[in-house]
Amino acid sequence: MKYYFKILSLCQLLSLEISAQYNTQWITGILDLEFNGEQNIEAYEQMILRYRTPLDINNASSKELAGLYILTEKQIEQLMRHIREYGPLVSIYELQIIPGFSMQTIKALQPYIIIDTRRHPSQLSKTLKGYVLTRADRIIEQKAGYQHTDPDFRYLGSPVKIISKLRLSVGPRLQTGITIEKDAGEPLMWSPSEGAYGFDHISGFVRFKGKKLIKNIVIGDFTTLWGQGLVMGGGFFMGKGREPIMTVKRNSIGFEPYGSVSEYGYFRGAAIEVTSGPLTVSSFFSSRNVDAGMNTKGEITSLLTSGLHRNLRELSKRQVVKEHAAGINIEYQPNNKHLSFGTSLIYNSYSVPFETTEKPYKLFYNTDANNMVAGMHFEYRKTNTVYFGEVAANQTGGYGLISGLIASLSHSFDAIIVARDYSRKFNSPFAFQAFRESSKAQNEKGIYWGVKYRPKTTLLLSAFADVYTYPWLTNAVYSPSYGNEYMFNIEYTPSDIIQVRGLLRSGKKEMNNRTKDAKIPGVKSGQKLQLHTDTKITLNNHVSVRFGIRHSSYKIGEAISKGFLFYQDFILTYPKTTLSTRFAIVDSPDFQNRFYVYERDLLYSFSVPMYYGTGTKYYILLKQVLFPKLHLWIKWSRTTFRNRENIGSGTEQISGNTKSEIRGQLIYKF
Amino acid sequence: MFTRLLAISFLSIPYFSDAQVISFQGAHSAGIAHTSVTYADGLSIYNNAGSLGFLEKSSIATGYQNHYEVEGLNTVFAVINNRIKTGAISIGVSAFGDELFSISRVSTGLGNRFGIAALGVTLHYIQYRIEGFGSHGFISVDVGGLAELSPLLFIGGRIKNINQAKVSKFPDEYYPTILTAGISYRPTDQLRFNTQIDKDLEFPAKLKFGLEYKINALSLRTGLNTQPLWFSFGFGFIHKKFILDYALQNNYLLGRTHSISIFYQIKN
Questions:
Q1: How far is A470 from chain B (nearest CA, A)?
Q2: Residue A302 predicted with pLDDT over 50
Q3: Judged by CB atoms within 8 Å, which residues 411-430 of A form the interface with B?
Q4: Which domains does chain A have, with CATH numbers?
Q5: Under the phi-then-psi rule, with left for phi > 0, alpha for psi from -120 to 50, and beta for the rest, what region is A296?
């Protein structure tokens, strides 16, 4: 078996901007990055765009408050009651007198809310605010693709990855942005007829937020979420993670502009949200070309999500299928704001149909060029409990259902139960955010429980359990199957100096288990057990250290594999300069025992690389304030493997046992 | 029907072994995945004899349970609890099965409280009967204890069949011997969170979790049992001196189990 060490921070999985004050611990918990690095890393950019416009806490709905993923249902209820009884908050410090609001909560909330817009004239003025960001990355060692003799495989562009972004806002209502990107190996092309305008990926938006009838208009690239995401569930996916309560229920906050470098999972067109009294109508239209693999009959074999177009082979799949989509969501929320319910419909079509295959697991996939999904959703709050749910059906006769409740059983104890049932015929192409275990909201039934308990301000305990079945075959299991997952987490912060975290997570899932001679794989239950600890010590104002140990084991049949990771960070902070370093050793030969570990990155950005193989890794990251508005970051990292002659495979192969990367970024804020 | 019954009888040997079938612990207990070793709820005779020492009222109770919606896999019981000075005495009868196969049980228990802790013992006379093979009876003894470490924290333990009684001598088949330890955390009057470990000598240890929340006269419950995996939901309703409990358990492979029990509390 080939061992290799893959750093996910490559390509578009690279890094995402993030608010400087952001509590990174919290975000990794919310998005469950340390287990699902790949699928969730894109979530950041959406999240950051969302948090860029602070919420006016006095006028926010309970849904919007829940959408911050900081407050519990009990806290939301107490806050709403406080505002009802005593009038609008006059200062953030007033939160302290509301029962259930600790200093920790207020600190976490502070960056994302404003108390009174009249007291913050900068929020209302027409001044121009924004930033320009430019980033370049390069792997020092040459990859095989750059010297490949076959013209189909040879990388046509330079090995430098470039990202540039411009974000502008005029007052609190008007925002615009543009993102251009070229992955390593991609050529700069100018061919308007093929949709190529220099950089491989260009994305932009203009968004206007109104006050009265027209609440929100986005022209350009956008995403949205309705109900629990079964019909329309764009934006960032939150899975099961260290935060067991707040990440399961979806909180719709309307159309959001899209500015990520990911070339998949967004709409391009126009979107409008109109509100009149208790009624809100949202609708959109989108038309764009998407990447697809095609068979000889000209049918789609699969839609591609990587966004890589480095050689002729990859370029031949670039933007070959036209995707049209349109949708409408009507939501009714009576004045008391306790109840809201709505109905939504979405239609989409591709310029060619999908290939029909004999593969049994694909038997219930929709192969039509068109698809329609419709559904109804509701949310109801009473005292300390919120009930929510959505039911949806699509044109192939499939149905999807999710229903659950979150209850704050006491000031410090929260619990959640959610049931889901997505039939094997349920084809909902934009249900990216629907809560689930598998990659699609299809062919899955399950029940999820979560509890969170904070007996003292210094101690947090949380846990979840998820039990699910796949009633039909999947691409990894050739029989109906079942699985379960458990997590226990403990966080102890006795003082500002030290923070300790421990986590245990166990998952059991049936998998095809092919023995050497068998033509048909047998199905066996694979069990994974992971243990994490992290300790952060702040020695003084300038010096802090962090170290972590991860252990993972995977057992399928009689075979057991294990992985181990140890990392040590050292961080120096001065007013104009920050220096962060890490040294890590990893011994994890089996892919099942790979680790995702949060890593400091170019500030305003984030990376959660995958550690896998046997070797060492170090990085040095320097941040320097050049001028008050101009900041520079430089990061150097190197991975060295033991007993290896090359890294990676195919066109991505590097000969030798080291991989080094240099990255630089400049941000100008105005 | 017959094939399903046959399949279940083969598949379910480990499931029956954990003594849920033959020792139905009531619908209250079923709703919290049987994390009831710390409960003094009137079915102590089946849950934990030690908790008889904590019993507050005399009561009579009856209940019914059906496994996997299969005819014949039924349990019924009736129990009388009588408060005495420092504890309680309990007598119960229960029966599982139908005319083809049945297990009948007569039980009596005594629990006594000493300060924050209580100890108890239960004696069961158990009779197995198989149509055409005849019947066999034996005595099995359970011991248990319960302690209130603080008003928030209860801890309980139990040994079932401490005398290691045998169901049959040839082949050597023991009635299950099960060790149990559990804690119940009760941060408010409304909320109970239970964790329990059950270890049957011959099967993997089961880790169980139960959560119970009380709103006025209504209790809502959920629980999760590992090895084998099943989960439960249940509710309880108090009206004057009556308590009604219902629970639904779901096992992925075998299906649903329904339980119901009714209490009548007699004021002492």
A1: 11
A2: yes
A3: 412-413, 415, 417
A4: 11-669 (2.40.170)
A5: alpha
Is the previous residue joined to A575 through a cis bond, with omega within 30 degrees of 0?
Answer: no
Distance, CA of A98 to CA of A73 (rounded, Å): 14
Chain A within 8 Å of B188 (Cβ-Cβ)?
yes
What CATH number did the domain enclosing B262 receive? 2.40.160.60
Q: Which of A117-141 are b and which e, b meaning 16 or more Cβ less than 10 Å from the residue's Cβ? A: eeeeeebeeeeebbbebebebebeb
Closest CA of chain B from A580, distance in Å: 42
pLDDT digits (tens, 9 = 90+) for A198-235: 899 999 999 998 888 998 999 999 999 999 999 998 87
pLDDT of residue A39: 46
Residues A409, B231: C-beta atoms closer than 8 Å: no
Written as six digits, the tokens of A44 are 């950041």
B10 DSSP assignment? H
Q: Which of A413, A447, A455 sits opposite B191 (nearest CB)?
A: A413
Q: Does A529 touch chain B (CB under 8 A)?
A: no
Average predicted confidence (pLDDT) for chain B: 88
Please name the residue of chain A whose CA is at the shortest distance from the CA of residue B227. Answer: A484
pLDDT at A36: 53
What pLDDT does B11 receive?
45
CB neighbours of B166 closer than 8 A, spacing ≥ 6?
B138, B172, B173, B174, B175
Closest CA to A246 of A119, A487, A416, A442: A416
pLDDT at A32: 57
Retrieve residue A558's tokens: 């009689």
By DSSP bridging, strand A55-56 and strand A113-114 are: parallel
Contacts of B13 (CB under 8 A, 6+ apart): none
Distance, in Å, from the CA atom of B198 to the CA atom of B210, rounded to the nearest integer, reads 14
Angle at A284 between CA A282 and CA A285, to 5 degrees: 165
**Phi, psi torsion values for B6, nearest 5 degrees:** -65, -50
Given a cut of 80, whether residue A415 has pLDDT beyond it is: yes
ipTM confidence score: 0.72
Question: Residue A455 and residue B187: Cβ atoms within 8 Å?
Answer: yes
Q: Which domain holds residue B8?
A: 2-266
Q: Tokens at residue A625, please?
A: 């304030």
Q: Is A413 within 8 Å of B190 when comparing Cβ atoms?
A: no
- Which residues of chain A are within 8 Å of residue B208 when distances are taken between CB atoms? none
Give the closest residue to A98 by CA, choosing from A64, A137, A72: A72
CA distance A542 to A529: 37
Has residue B194 got a pLDDT over 80?
Answer: yes
Chain B residue with minimum CA distance to A508: B229
Which of A412, A415, A455 has its CB closest to that of B211? A415
Q: Specify the pLDDT at position A648.
A: 86
Domain count, chain B: 1
